[in-house]
Specification:
It contains 10 helices and 12 strands. By secondary structure, it is α/β, with parallel strands linked by helices. Keywords: Transferase.
């Protein structure tokens, strides 16, 4: 048997309270939620679900939701609070999402804009300086950053009164109903397979550290089990994005496109979160290169070891929020 007590319950509750106490007074009216993740990353879908959980406690209407490919600016009411999905895409690593955020900031100078907690990273500092001018020009913008390093970097160029330091929105989720108590004897090495995998990742050392335990090496199950499967779903997702982006602009076809989910199922967000829960619950311990591998493991009361990504995102988050967490190692 594994420990049945929720070892980090108080710590998680404190993070959730910090989010609620800070953001609730800022959302002062009906709102839209934009740049939501119409893709398979379980972590991004956890953030989205956490954002919705937070918003469900507010007395205002949710007027519109859209991803960056299907968003129609004319659907955004003049007085609406614009909420922008959080995550790890503020900067120049994911330029398409960043440009969408900047377009919103420039196009809606009179709307309050709140960017939910983000990790910020720029390979090119001159780009940050240029983008800071756009951010500083907006009269009512609040950029939430989810670690001290991101905050210090952005605060060199962006007015500090626009900045907030807050944990990830996935901590708004309550997954206690999904806790398991039966030991599985298995360890997961959650190894990301994209450009954020650190050059310092050493599988041989990790396997040695795990000893005789049964170890599986996987990325999120939503990405497929084989390289061929991953290539197929990547191609399918790309086609869907292009089709939905075109169809949403055609009067005869736009009704077929969901502004949040495109041409995909509106059940996808919940499906991916549930898929992640079932996946992590197959293991007693998680060794993770993904930030939300840690967050999901902590919410499910698992032991976890955090490995950094390619630019410090995971360790910076740990150092900012997780020093009092139990059953967590780096």
């Amino acid at each position: 048997m594994i420990a049945t007590g929720f070892v980090n319950q108080a710590q998680i509750a404190a993070l959730k309270d910090k989010i609620k106490d800070t953001l609730s007074p800022l959302v002062e009216g009906d709102y839209v939620l934009l740049d939501v993740p119409n893709h398979r990353n379980i972590g991004d879908n956890m953030i989205w679900k956490g954002e919705l959980e937070f918003l469900s406690g507010l007395p205002y209407k949710h007027l519109y939701t859209a991803n960056m490919h299907t968003c129609r600016f004319n659907r955004i009411p003049t007085a609406a609070v614009i909420l922008i999905h959080g995550g790890g895409n503020f900067g120049d690593i994911y330029p398409e999402s960043q440009q969408f955020k900047l377009s919103l900031i420039e196009r809606f100078p009179d709307n309050k804009i709140i960017i939910f907690p983000q990790t910020a990273y720029y390979k090119e500092p001159r780009r940050l300086k240029r983008e800071a001018r756009v951010i500083n020009a907006h009269k009512d913008l609040h950029l939430c950053l989810r670690d001290h390093v991101s905050y210090e970097m952005i605060s060199r160029y962006v007015d500090k009164e626009k900045l907030l330091l807050l944990p990830d929105m996935a901590f708004c989720l309550d997954l206690s109903a999904h806790h398991t108590v039966a030991a599985t004897g298995r360890v997961l090495i959650l190894k990301r397979t994209d450009h954020e995998l650190s050059d310092d990742f050493n599988l041989a050392d990790l396997m040695t550290d795990c000893g005789e335990k049964a170890v599986e090496i996987r990325d999120w199950p939503s990405y497929g089990n084989t390289q061929a499967h991953t290539r197929w779903i990547t191609r399918f997702d790309s086609i869907e994005r292009r089709l939905s982006e075109v169809m949403v602009r055609l009067p005869g076809l736009q009704a077929l496109v969901d502004p949040a989910f495109g041409l995909r199922s509106p059940k996808n967000m919940d499906k991916y979160v549930q898929q992640g829960i079932g996946f992590i619950n197959r293991y007693d311990k998680v060794v993770t290169t993904r930030l939300h591998g840690f967050i999901l493991a902590a919410l499910l009361n698992k032991k976890v070891r955090i490995l950094d990504n390619s630019y410090g995102k995971n360790i910076n988050f740990y150092n900012t929020w997780l020093s009092t967490f139990r059953h967590v190692e780096i």
